[in-house]
Automatic annotation (TrEMBL):
InterPro entries: Beta_galactosidase_Trimer, Class_I_gatase-like, GH, Glyco_hydro_42, Glyco_hydro_42_N, Glyco_hydro_b. Residues 27-399 form the Glycoside hydrolase family 42 N-terminal domain. This is Beta-galactosidase. Keywords: Glycosidase, Hydrolase, Metal-binding, Zinc. Belongs to the glycosyl hydrolase 42 family. SUPFAM superfamilies: (Trans)glycosidases, Class I glutamine amidotransferase-like. It comes from Rhizobium mesosinicum. The keyword Cytoplasm does not apply.
Length: 712
């Protein structure tokens, strides 16, 4: 793998690599050494070329302060290397040893109730702590120098799933570092007081050393600006902690690649130093774990959503942990992939931008908090169908790597994403409304179900490959983004803004101009006269709940609308119900009204508009998306924007994605159901997973079957 350092972050970036990494996280410290040779032999026979190790082994590598012992991992690396398998080493800073927290209890994280975290778990130490940072640098330097000339150590992973367990800390170290961060950001306390609205509730400070951390309900809500800056600090602190390690690794051996594996996505600014420090980003994916499975409806769609969101941060990635089987900790567990499903999920990761993939894990642990987090090999050391699927996948990736590597994932429909400030701004003042990402999910699902190329992208990225961009009520808006979207529209693109976009400034203050602010009002030709809250689609109002529970008598001729205050609108020849939020709009003379409110006092007032801008158009919605509105809006806009499915009439249970570049197009088709599927209207090409068999029209896939069609 070659270095991929680039100052420009882009959703279109492939990982700069000459081989597809395929393997598994491996924990030789969890089994007797008599297993090691056999493990290496079976990995090699499966076609694995990489393992990842040591991320939880600080206590082995440094059993006491200043005494290092690398012998266990040296032997394990050598045995793997003798079978042609390289190693990614990990800095073990997610699990500091007990001797360190005994000597320095001040490095422990503290929760919002003042309770220090404890040894016996992981991520219990505070990445903001100068003392912990010093020890992190020390173990990183010792490991790097030891493996400097080992040809089988080809790269490094920093830490493990930073901020996944607990990103927040309310320790003395966090408070002190937060105060220093604010002093550097604002220079004077007056500027901080202005940014946080210090004249409200007498929350002003006289000096930076008076600043407190934003405790929830202490006894009521802190300023949104205060909370926003706290999470900006957490992101800064996380990037700084990682930078300490990256700086050491690059100085010791510049030829190593360096990445991080992300589990959750909290308190990390992907468009800042955290990402630019790395050669590429890794995302751990467990499609059958996430809560969204219940809301969205199936794990294949959840996996697609997660990976499309992640790709929007910085482009293609690797998957350092891909679900292989049942997984659990004492308080939760996943569903279990059926035979054939593990390979299908891995192929979906590749289809959506993975340029490397490791199945979690090689074998399960027999002790600890994940004894039933299964792997490729079972507890009894017997390889079964998961091993066979991993071998099949590895063989396919080796055969196809020259086709796959160097391609990006096609997007016709882009959704504005990967902006840290807007992600956090919603959390500071959610008032029961969907987040921008929750709103965007409806458009993503619509496109997914119909085989339309869709993904997430930042407005600062190259928009020229898109046909339509949807902005899901980003309350913080920069004037330079307006110019970029104007240029996109002038060149023929369609831009859609949702309600509330541009209504706050960078300090989380409500703007003083009429919404959506001067630059967006000029671009859209729209101004918001007033706004209000609506019930979620299908939700019962308080009176209706009371009525159904017998607590309220409502006359039979009294319509439900009168106590729910339901808002409806007409778009085309359909009348639909709005959800969550409404805006009443005033429009300029050159603006076309494409939807109007159809009941109550606002009947006949504009709800959605379209304005011609150059060769394209700019659309404004005075509400949030609902499934019905998403469908109606897509039917109205997609045709003019020349947006078509990758495969027409896609049957239920089939997922389609395209990876491409200037000289090739690869159509990934997966059947995520256990029953066979027949797909019509497949463009002409050859199926690279079926010995180059020609395809033109119909394609049959077995349950959990996959095809990669190189188009003619």
């Amino acid at each position: 793998m070659s270095e991929n350092k680039s100052a420009k972050i882009s959703a279109w970036n492939p990982v700069n690599t000459d081989r597809f990494l395929v393997g598994a996280p491996h924990y030789p410290e969890h089994v007797d050494e008599s297993y090691w040779e056999r493990d290496a032999e079976r990995m090699a026979k499966a076609g694995f070329n990489i393992v990842r190790m040591a991320e939880f082994a600080w206590h082995i590598l440094e059993p006491e302060l200043g005494r290092f012992d690398f012998e266990l991992f040296d032997r394990a690396i050598a045995i793997l290397g003798s079978h042609g398998i390289d190693t990614i080493m990990c800095t073990p800073t997610a699990t500091p040893p007990r001797w360190l927290t005994v000597a320095h209890p001040e490095i422990l994280r503290v929760d919002g109730k003042g309770r220090p975290m404890s040894h016996g778990s992981r991520q219990h130490c505070d990445t903001a702590s100068p003392v912990f940072r010093e020890h992190s640098r020390r173990i990183t330097k010792a490991m790097a120098e030891h493996y400097r000339d080992n040809p089988r150590v080809v790269g490094w992973q920093t830490d493990n799933e930073l901020n996944t367990s607990m990103p927040e800390s309310f320790s003395k170290a966090t408070l002190s570092e937060f105060q220093l961060f604010l002093a550097g950001k604002y220079s004077t306390i007056d500027r901080l007081n202005h940014a946080w609205g210090g004249d409200f509730w007498a929350t002003a400070y006289q000096s930076f050393d008076q600043v407190v951390l934003p405790i929830e309900f202490g006894p009521t809500f802190p300023s949104p600006g205060h909370v926003q800056d706290y999470h900006r600090f957490l992101a800064f602190s996380t990037a700084r902690f990682q930078h300490d390690q990256v700086e050491i690794l690059r100085a010791v051996n510049p030829s190593w690649f360096v990445f991080h594996n992300l589990g959750g996505l909290r308190d990390i600014d992907f468009r800042g130093q955290f990402t630019t420090d790395l050669d590429f980003v890794g995302y751990d994916i467990y499609p059958m774990l996430y809560d969204e499975f219940q809301r969205i409806g199936n794990h294949a769609k959840v996996q697609a959503l997660h990976l499309d969101i992640c790709r929007g941060f910085s482009g293609n990635y690797i998957v350092p942990e891909q679900q292989s089987s049942f997984g659990s900790q004492p308080g939760f567990c996943t569903l279990t992939p059926e035979p054939g499903e593990m390979r299908r999920m891995a192929m979906s990761s590749v289809a959506r931008g993975a340029d490397g993939l490791m199945f979690f894990r090689w074998r399960p642990a027999h002790f600890g908090a994940e004894i039933y987090w299964m792997g490729i090999i079972d507890h009894d050391d017997v390889p079964r169908h998961r091993y066979d699927e991993a071998k099949r996948f590895a063989t396919e990736m080796k055969a196809l790597q020259d086709k796959i590597l160097g391609t990006y994932v096609r997007m016709d429909v882009g959704i504005a994403g990967s902006d840290f400030d807007n992600q956090e701004a919603h959390k500071t003042y959610p008032i029961g409304l969907p987040s921008p990402q929750d709103d965007a999910v409806l458009l993503h699902q619509y496109c997914y179900d119909r085989g339309i190329a869709c993904g997430f992208i930042h407005p600062e990225d190259d928009l020229s490959k898109l046909k339509l961009l949807y902005v899901p009520h980003w309350v913080m808006w920069k004037g330079e983004w307006t110019e970029r979207l104007k240029s996109f529209a002038e060149a023929g693109g369609t831009v859609v803004f949702a309600a509330r976009t541009g209504t706050r400034d960078e300090n989380n203050h409500v703007i003083r101009q009429t919404a959506p602010g001067t630059s967006l009002a000029k671009l859209t030709g729209v101004r918001v006269e007033d706004f209000g809250r609506l019930s979620a689609p299908g939700a019962m109002g308080l009176f209706e709940v009371m009525e159904r529970s017998g607590g309220l008598v409502v006359p039979p001729n009294r319509p439900a609308e009168s106590h729910r205050r339901e808002r409806r609108f007409k778009i085309g020849n359909r009348e639909l119900t709005a959800g969550y939020f409404y805006e009443n709009l005033i429009v300029d003379d050159d603006v076309e009204v494409i939807a109007v409110w159809s009941n109550r006092y606002a009947e006949g007032r504009p709800m959605a508009t379209s304005r011609k801008v150059g060769e394209g158009r700019v659309v404004y919605l005075g509400t949030y998306l609902t499934p019905d509105l998403t469908e109606a809006l897509s039917e109205r806009l997609f045709g003019d924007a020349r947006i078509e499915p990758l495969i027409a009439d896609l049957p239920e249970g089939v997922e389609v994605t395209m990876r491409m570049n200037e000289d090739r197009r690869l159509l990934f088709i997966q059947n995520y159901l256990d029953k066979p599927a027949r797909i019509s209207h497949v463009p002409a090409g050859i199926n690279l997973l079926d010995a180059g068999k020609e395809v033109d029209g119909a394609l049959a896939l077995e349950g959990y079957g996959c095809a990669v069609v190189q188009l003619s």
